[in-house]
Amino acid sequence: MTSDDKMFFVIEMTDTVKIQPWLFNVNQLDAISVELNKKLANKVVYNVGLCICLFDILKLEDSYIFPGDGAAHTKVRFRYVVFRPFVDEVLIGKIKGCSRDGVCVTMGFFDDVLIPPENLQQPSKFDEAEQVWVWEYETEDGTHELFMDIGEEIRFRVMEETFVDTTPSSVPSSDPATAETSVEETKSKTPYSIEASITDSGLGLLSWWNNG
């Protein structure tokens, strides 16, 4: 979705992959590739980014079968494609929704991009009836209302990224009610989110500039 795809990069990782006995007749590399993608694809790794897909496998160490298990455990060194745009990078997505909190943008595979009200083209207002943000674009002919409709393509600048550690607490609470609340809070957290801006010229809906 960008000309240079800098929002994606390849990171080296190490993990131990477990292959069940009924997969022993499958090519080892294929079986390990499937398991790695099953484990990591569409998952956020804290302070790393959103894992997209396996790039390649660099090294397989010896496989071990533990008593009473039967599965093969193999330490693997591999490279994985990760989504993590840098601050100030300009990307293109689609408007997913609007609220008083701002404009929510989706990249198709990543939905946690928010453009808060102060980062919109100014002056902008929230239309309660339409539930969309509107840029009140001023010209010599008067003010034109440019609606930020859902589904429209939008160009934005990355301003800030936030990672939240959603790993459950290692010390369980003795109070069932407290433990349940803690689990729900963990589930509700967004592990990786991006704050964006469209205040600069050329940013915002593509149609604003393409039709100009």
How would you portray this structure in words?
The protein has 212 residues and is mainly β. The chain folds into two domains: 8-83, Dna Ligase, domain 1 (2-Layer Sandwich), CATH 3.30.1490; 90-210, OB fold (Dihydrolipoamide Acetyltransferase, E2P) (Beta Barrel). It has helices at 28-40, 176-188, 206-210; strands at 8-19, 44-45, 49-65, 72-83, 90-99, 102-106, 113-115, 124-127, 132-139, 142-147, 153-163, 192-197, 204-205. The chain has a five-stranded mixed β-barrel. The chain has a four-stranded antiparallel sheet with strand order 1-4-3-2. A hairpin with a 2-residue loop joins strand 5 (90-99) and strand 6. The protein is elongated, with a radius of gyration of 23 Å. The model has no long low-confidence stretch (mean pLDDT 88).
Summarize the structure.
This protein is mainly beta. Helices cover about 15% and strands about 45% of the residues. The chain folds into two domains: about 10-85, 2-Layer Sandwich (Dna Ligase, domain 1); about 90-210, OB fold (Dihydrolipoamide Acetyltransferase, E2P) (Beta Barrel), CATH 2.40.50.
Order of helices and strands: EHEEEEEEEEEEHEEH
Write down the domain tally: 2
Q: Mean of the pLDDT scores? A: 88
Shape verdict: elongated
How many helices in DSSP terms? 3
CATH topology of the largest domain: OB fold (Dihydrolipoamide Acetyltransferase, E2P)
Strand order of the largest sheet: 5-6-7-12-11
Radius of gyration: 23 Å
Secondary-structure class: mainly beta
Detail the poorly predicted runs: none
SS strand fraction: over 45%
Write down the oligomeric state. single chain
- The CATH class of the largest domain is Mainly Beta
Helical residues, percent? 10-25%
End-to-end separation? 22 Å
Q: Could you give me the name of the CATH homologous superfamily of the largest domain?
A: Nucleic acid-binding proteins
Q: How many strand elements? A: 13
The biggest sheet, with number of strands, parallel, antiparallel or mixed sense and barrel status, is: 5 strands, mixed, barrel
